[in-house]
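Practice problem: predict the structure.
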Amino acid sequence: MNAHSPIQNWLKENNAKHQWHPMQPPKAVEADPPLIVQRGEGVFVEDIDGKRYIDCQGGLWCVNAGHNRAPIKDAITRQMDQLQYYTTFPGSTNAPSIELSAKLCEIAAPEDIAKVFFCLGGSDATESAFKIARQYWKLMGQGEKTKIISLRNGYHGLHFGGMSACGGNAWKRVYEPMVPGFFQVESPHLYRNPFTDDPEELSAICAALLEREIEHQHPDTVAAIIAEPIQGAGGVIVPPASYWPKLREICDRQNVLLIADEVITGLGRSGTLFGSRGWGVKPDIMCMAKGLTSGYLPLGATLIGRRVAEAWDRGGPLSVFMQGYTYSGHPLACAAALAAIDLTLEEKLTENAADVGAYFIGRLKATIGDHPNVGDIRGKGLMIAVELVKDRKTKEPYTPDDAYPNKVSNACVSNGIIIRCIVNKLIISPPLTFTREHVDQVVEVLRKAVEQ
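Answer:
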């Protein structure tokens, strides 16, 4: 396609004219149409005009193995030549879904994962987890245990169940009322909390508040706690190292299930294969998507621990898992996931995320950490946030009406770096194939953008 082809002109003319884009006012998108991304290669993408960018958002937290990887594309093509689709509803299945379920149980053996349910994405995976948790307690003869407790700033998808568990009003205000039975407690946000600057003290306080809420609701009515090992959309909030072990202790003490929302952290992004593994914790249920296929095809999975799965062995009228999607276990998506997992393990992308992520955070702190409008730089692995503030002393944040954060992000895009801006936070989540050389390029562009 040349620079002035009719197709290219048509795409530009119709950009945002007919399509609603996620989490944006339609009129605003029409007034400022989005970047049309046309190609990808490794950590780079190219727009419709042929301009190349470093993809510092990894598509949307998901292109872990990088763009245009032949092993994943070839796996999809081979499967397409054999079977493009067949259902996993009663009476049939397909080979890639069998292979992938076994592979996930293998790599999650330290968490004692025994079963896998496939869906289409993260929102489906958390929704399925809530259903599994409630059904588990019914099978165990404790049918009153239905309530779900989550953390403020947490994000668990936009189905009504997941949205009800979300800890931010921005995601759900216009769709209220939410589903009953969902409750939020304080998250251990070291940069923004009303309690303390000491991480261990904050961990203890937030854990105590959580346990107090369970006791207030009464443990006999609480089914599960859901949390992200590192809160993603809420602003890359990394909890103190002792917080997740405290979550596990509380769940064991109060007889409550622990659901780890690993949609972003699953398969390496946080510097360990699973985010919860990085805290030394075994959840009862794990939710995965995004990096599962490296974004090549839509796929989600809910991983069920052995103790929970064994409840279905009891049989009886309540043992039917009444959940499913037309595309559950889609063979093309499962084939892509098997290839993506192999790449992750063979190329040691998890270890690279830990190494390059630490280097990235160090370079950011050394380069822009003292800037008067940079309040906090935080992250783990290749999940990083730069929080922009009006005043470093008061931590006054920029609001959605303030132009500065978007100007910084737009300046980065103008200079070939795609960084996602969420209100006052610049989110950095590149492919796990990122190198230190890529980091140096990004940091220099970001430095100029912040100062500019």
